[in-house]
Amino acid sequence: AKSGVKKKSQSEESQPENAPAIKTQKPPNKTSRKVEELKGAEKAAMPRAITPMLATLVDQPFNDPEWLFEVKLDGYRAVAFVENGRTRYVSRNQNEFTADFPELEDLGKQLRGEKLVVDGEVCVLDEEGRPSFSLMQQRTGYEPGRVSRRTMAGGRPVVYYIFDILYLDGYSLMRVDLEQRKEILRRILKPNIIFRYSEHFLEEGLPLYQVARQKSLEGIIAKRRKGCYLQKRTREWLKIKITQMQECVIGGYTEPRGGREHFGSLVLGLYDEQGRLIPVGQAGTGFNRKSEAEMIAKLRKLETEKSPFAFKPDSSRGLHYVKPQLVAQIKFTEWTHEGQAKGNKLAGLKMRAPVFLGLRKDKQPSECRFEAVKSARREAAKAEEGEAA
User: Fold this and answer.
1) Cβ of 385: how many Cβ atoms within 10 Å?
2) Which residues carry out catalysis?
């Protein structure tokens, strides 16, 4: 869709002024000689593990010539390691899930290079081309396993949106400016229906945010154009949400009522700074008969008499506690404040109208924490002044 935003979009044949000096054709050794000329490129062995760079949550979109902007994708974060034509996909918590996405095995054929590491998001798209986490769950189920091409063909095919390149043929690019990394990626990627270059927009985050809102997308990401790739959460990437999404720990479930057969709601929690699991609400919608039966089977295996929560959740129904090992993706309307129980200022926070979208295997329960919303302008200014984190 046309948004009126200046997009970084040139044809494959064009050679824009001041573009990185990179060849688009093999042999790779010629490419390597050009890569080494880039400021920040470092000769290095191919990494075997990468901790993905994460964004800081901020309050509002903004325009700034030092930043570029991307659509926030709703799927599984995946770092891809390509070596001699073979591809390995690793989640943000270092779990390998290559076998879950067999249609993505040919990434090496779409990249000009022998050894590469790229960062991106595995998504399932709805009828309007929007990434949908709930559709991803329909494809893979609650615990993705080996998905054959036969079972995948009639279901929900995935796409891999690639937004960064970290390593290319003997050189680490993590200290190369982001904008140059993206230009390198654009030149060496031959996109198709499955492997897609994640477009970015220069300077103007406000128009992109409005387009994303109109299309009911999750939000946008602001990235500093001169930023390095840092293997941690940083203010050089800022996320601005439109749809409220939260990964929560499942700490229990309630007794069923009415037409429900197996359970009423999932009892959800987030960890505070002291490592205590704080109840944040209950999600009873988002299930059908099949998914409800699959969920209760998992919950019963984890049942325990000991509550994982710092204090008892409010509930008018009987509570069953489970070991805090499952992470749920939850969509909700807003945070509400219902007092400060038990002397904890976070204890009164509750999600309004939470809806269960699916389980996440790519995130650890310990990652499910309260996330403070920070000032976009303040965080952007600090990043521009060199305070990355």
Assistant:
1) 8
2) 72
